[in-house]
Amino acid sequence: xxxxxxxxxxxxxxxxxxxxxxxxxxxxxxxxxxxxxxxxxxxxxxxxxxxxxxxxxxxxxxxxxxxxxxxxxxxxxxxxxxxxxxxxxxxxxxxxxxxxxxxxxxxxxxxxxxxxxxxxxxxxxxxxx
Length: 129
Known about the structure:
Elements: E1 2-5, H1 11-24, E2 32-36, H2 42-48, H3 52-61, E3 66-69, E4 78-84, H4 90-103, E5 104-112, H5 114-121, E6 126-128
Helix pairs in contact: 4-5
């Protein structure tokens, strides 16, 4: 697990930076799932504008980074999950952290307040400022 420190207002920005770092390090776009605990990522909103069926088909195709709500009930599993902690409600954040952990086959990157996810994920992992 990797922690990227950010307050909820900057968590999306830090998640985008984390995705860029992962891609630059050689990760395939189809290996990455970005989940938001709060407000949807702008790219998710854009893709949903084409309809639910087209949006979810992208997940099945697995060719690009996929952006979703951490609370979605769909089965999602990718090698790397980037969790955006852009919500301040403890229950919602902890539920999102549990789901993100279950969706990550290899690496979980949490962008947000480490204390907010600590009850679920602990305090382990590398922390990036």
